[in-house]
Amino acid sequence: MPVFRGEYLLPLLEGFHIARDQRTNRRIRAREVRVVGPEGEQLGVLPIEAALERAQSAGMDLVEVNPMAKPPVCKIMDYGKFKYEEKKRASEAKKKQVVVHLKEIKLRPKTEEHDYEFKVRNVRRFLEEGNKAKVTIMFRGREITHKELGSAILDDVIKDLKDVAVVEQMPRMEGRQMFMIIAPNPKVAARARELARQQAAAAEKAEGKSEGGKKSEAPAAGGKAEDQAVAQAPVPAPAAAAPASQSGGAK
Fold this sequence. Notes:
Layout: H1 6-13, E1 32-36, E2 42-47, H2 48-57, E3 61-66, E4 73-77, H3 79-96, E5 102-107, H4 113-128, E6 132-138, H5 147-160, E7 165-174, E8 177-184, H6 186-232, H7 244-250
Parallel strand pairs: 1-4, 5-6
Antiparallel strand pairs: 1-2, 3-4, 6-8, 7-8
């Protein structure tokens, strides 16, 4: 039986992930569990009822973090808060992730020069954004007997984009179409990922500034309201001076 000490158990708990079917509270089936407190402190092996009472007294949940251990290891934590933070981290990671799209460009064996150049420019721009492109040559009627024309066009595309692209799937026939798939070369792909990270960081920074601005608006508005209230408050009239005759009579 493995010996669980604090220095060995803490690495087990750092960065652990809660699975969808992770058992919590009354769903834990073990009769006794090794309990870790909210701050990572070791509470020892406790009967499940005692462990649940500890979690309830702390206003938290008992979560089974290592069901394969003997006895299972459970941690007292705020399970709802943990799931929210996990979801938030996943959302932030998704924002920084580069999503690769596949765009199809269609050409004909008799495509005119200006149309070809226009579509190749679009493919170049698309590749520089970190995406992939599927270049398709469509044959109609008797054009299918001249497959070499389609191969020549695809060779031209490869030559014109050799500084930004690599061929991921070599040209091949599928029905009456010949196609190939090209992807950005490693240098272009790395530049696109870095640009995406910078844009995500800038968006996150701008979002943080906007939230900070909204919070700072409330006190400023309150201050203006107080100033207006003071300005509109009636000024008390000065005390009336006693008439000269009365002051003389008093003397």
